[in-house]
Every structure is written in C-alpha cells, then in structure tokens.
Amino acid sequence: MNTLVFDTECCGALRNNAHPFDRRNRLVAIGSLCSSGSTDLRYFSTDGVVGHDIRNHPVASAEKDCTIVGFNLRFDLHWIRRYGVNLLNHKLWDCQLAEFIIDNQRNRYPSLNGTLQKYGLPAKKDILKSYIDRGIDVDAIPKDELLEYLKQDLESTC
Q1: Which of 111, 98, 101, 28 shows the shortest CA–CA distance to 67?
Q2: Residues 77-102: tens digit of each pLDDT
Q3: With contact defined as beta carbons under 8 Å apart, do 141 and 131 qualify?
C-alpha cells in the first residue's frame, strides 16, 4: 500500500492554537514522509511563497490510491486547503481519531506524545512546547530546529 505521512507547522499558536481560519495565522512548514522512505520538508519565511510551493509538494500530487496519514489530520487538511490543495478524494487515516476510538472515547484529544507513550514507543522531543511556553511563536523558532521537529512528528506518526 502506498502511504504518505503528512504534517504542518503553523504560527498563531500564542493567539488561538494556529487556527487555520484566522487570516493572521500562516503556514510556516510542511512535511511528508512517503512509504518509499523519501522525506520532503519545506520552510516558508513569508506567506507569499506558500501557495505555489504547496501545489508542488508531494502531498498535493499524491496519487488517488495513496493513503494520506496524519495525527490530527483535519487540522493539516484545513491548512493546505487554505492554499488551494484539497485531498478529500484521497483515502485518509487520522491516527488521533483512531486513538480516540480505540481508547473508547475517554480522551477527547489524544496527543501524539501521549499516544506514543501508551504504546511504549519513544517520545518525541517537544521543541515546540518549550518555545511556546516562553512566548515565542512558531515562525520565530530557528528554521533548523523547526524542521527537525517536523521530521520527528512525521517519523513518530508512521
């Protein structure tokens, strides 16, 4: 089966959890990890280049028989749809939603780290949280650190 793990990183976390429908927020990075092993990480310094780059990203050109996988996938789908990419005709698998169902709906919003811990998998280093806790939004995190965090999310999700 052909799968593509997909994730986004967005600014606005200090305002409203980077809500994709708030025009003050913007996409900062997008990443994918294919079942073939190839990884594509992209960083956007301004909102102007995002639309073109997303339409040329592997997630936008994924074959219809490809399963798109994510954790809290609806968030990421809303973000790329804002830039003109619609994946609703693809097979989608949201690990967060699956965990919600597996856990008999006891935890409304399972976290990736909590889910990893539950199944005895290595926890991710939560770089993002340490910055947000200090009042630093995602677009001010050093590019290399943010892309490493994004890559770690992709690897943890698959």
Answers
A1: 98
A2: 999 998 888 888 889 999 999 999 99
A3: yes
Task: Give me the torsion for CA of 143, 130, 120, 30, rounded to 10°.
Answer: -30
Distance of alpha carbon 43 from alpha carbon 121, whole angstroms: 28
CB neighbour class for 92 (10 Å; exposed up to 12, middle 13-18, buried from 19)? middle
Q: Residue written as tokens 């986004």?
A: 8
Q: What is the 3-state secondary structure (H, E, C) of the chain?
A: CCEEEEEEEEECHHHHCCCCCCCCCEEEEEEEEECCCCEEEEECCCHHHHHHHHHCCCCCCCCCCCEEEECCHHHHHHHHHHCCCCCCCCEEEEHHHHHHHHCCCCCCCCCHHHHHHHCCCCCCCCHHHHHHHCCCCHHHCCHHHHHHHHHHHHHHHC
Q: Can you say how many angstroms the Cα of residue 140 is from the centroid of all Cα atoms in its chain?
A: 18
Predicted confidence band of residue 36 (pLDDT cuts 50, 70, 90): confident
Whole-angstrom CA distances from 79 to 5, 47, 51, 113 are 15, 12, 11, 22
Q: Which amino acid is at 122?
A: P
**Hunting for tokens 């650190």 — which residue is that?**
145
pTM of the model: 0.89
